[in-house]
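Why show two proteins at once? Because comparison is the fastest way to build intuition. When a single record is shown, students tend to memorize it. When two are placed side by side, the eye starts asking what differs. So, the first record is below.
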Amino acid sequence: MKVAFEKSLNNDPKCAHYLSLYLDELLRKRLKDMTDTEFHSNVDQVISVFRYLIDKDVFESYYRSSLCRRLLNSKPSAANVEEAEKLVVGKLRAECGQQYTSKLEGMLKDVSLSQDTSRSYSQSTSTSRMDGPSLSHCELDVKVCTSGFWPTHSPPKCEVPIEMKCLIDRFEAFYLSKHSGRRLTWMFNYGTADVRSRVGRNPHVLTVSTYQAMMLLLFNSSDALSYERIRSSLNCGRGDDASVDEKSEQGDDAEIKRHLMSLYVNPRVRVLLRESPRESKEPAAGDIFRVNTQFESRVRNLKVPLIALTSSSNNRDGPAGSSSSGNGGSAIPQAVEEDRKHIVEAVLVRIMKSRKQMDHNSLVVEATKQLSQRFQPTPQLIKQRIEHLIEREFLERCPHDHKTYNYLA
């Protein structure tokens, strides 16, 4: 029965993705209506299925992407979020070892350190004078993420409005004064903002993305703005690097369109009104946008959900740089396949460094044994990485037996 279940589970690599999606939904429900006993029981069931997965690295890649969204979107006061995440990561570490969960633990550590940094920053701003436009009414909560741990995508380049620029400059000065030699890159595509709206009869607090907040701030000085004006004001998709390719430029433009469309296509949170001669819902040159002065809602605090464009919705739940490999319809993300090459090479070098000399079959067996906790490598993959290590002069073939390898110090 166990053999049959394991075989059926691993027939489709998408099972690792589906299991990560179920665990993501489970961790989100933890914040709402699930008791500790129910949560622990469900997590144990997930781990029981996880043990039968062969492609555990595929699961880790998808789980890391969903963990990124949960940690960055959680409120600072949600202490039980971190406890639940630590519980799951601890169970994964018990199954696969510390190396498997090193990036996940690094993400949790970053969030914990960011909370301390935010408290120190708040104390420093409360005791010093705030320079800049209306900074006394703004609060900033920053999560400082180590680039090697987080599955981040490159954000579209944009010009930050002066209201936000002053806050950013102030935090950078504070942070770099305590951590010299570091460099901060602002990932606006992962941020959110609470914007106070005074349109209509009742004021509202809109929870929007950082890009949407930038767009809404433009309407403080204008009643109507064209699509071209919004793009030029934010300088979307442009940067100092003139070598940005056309594909990257189109991706940036699609991302900005997605954030702008979310402000006017949903009737429940239609903050903006669009005037366009076209029937298409996507914004384009010639469109005019105005603030919806008739906007009303019984709820004071509103969240503006982001829509998913058809062209970019296929991989929105996948890890950074993910795509199907094309090898017979494999669902293994390309980023995972690239990581596997480096992992196999590292294991081969570690084995040969300790053994100094091994024949081909023994090396393949030993490498497969050590890699089985993450994934099941094919003999062809191991052979390819051996050839690559020989080209890079980490290994050499024995002069008297070409099926035996020597380690080169």
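Second record. Ask yourself what differs from the first in the token line.
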Amino acid sequence: MTDSTKRELWMGKLRDLHLKRNEARKSNHAELIEEDKRAKLPSNWETRQKRLQWEEEDEVFRVRCVEEGRDADRARALDVSADVADRLDARRRKKCNTDEGFSTYAEASHRKYLKLTKQIKPNLSSYEKQKEELGDLMFPSANTIGLVDRKDPPEVVERLAKQIIEQAAKRPSYSRRRPFDADADIDYINERNKRYNELLDRHYGKYTAEIKQNLERGTAV
């Protein structure tokens, strides 16, 4: 192989390297531009694009269902598995604000009960063991006799006592301090009863004002 042939081979390889370098430079520049465009887009742009794509597909699906004479919502539900439907329903119920504030004392007690039961982690093995030992006494009725042999474990009693102590410690912070009125009627026996009466008066005072006035005047029927 002569020197001129070697030189042509090296020059050919050099041209190939230059071409590859230019292609890489153009590709990097294009990717840099795309990355800059994505950085300037809103943070939820991809989610919005997926939402728009889903709406377009849903519109086409509904048009096809109308042409075929089918209910679109029912047909869509048939395509969703039970696990996915349960997750979607749980997510929807979680987003829904079920706590609408104070309505009645029964509702407040029920919400408190649900909150406390969510904190309980039952021991299923111990539960099954008690069912086998007690039999029908596991689910007593009003006429059931013979529950004296059943005793709660010490850790359960300790947990109940701890919850009661925690509730008692939190209770003073529920109500803000109000100014003392020396001319107000004393219709309470302690501070807790006073707050309870004030709560009743805020919610039901306008309905019982006339009855209270009649009792004070002695004209109640």
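One difference worth noting in the second protein: Residues 44-87 form one domain.
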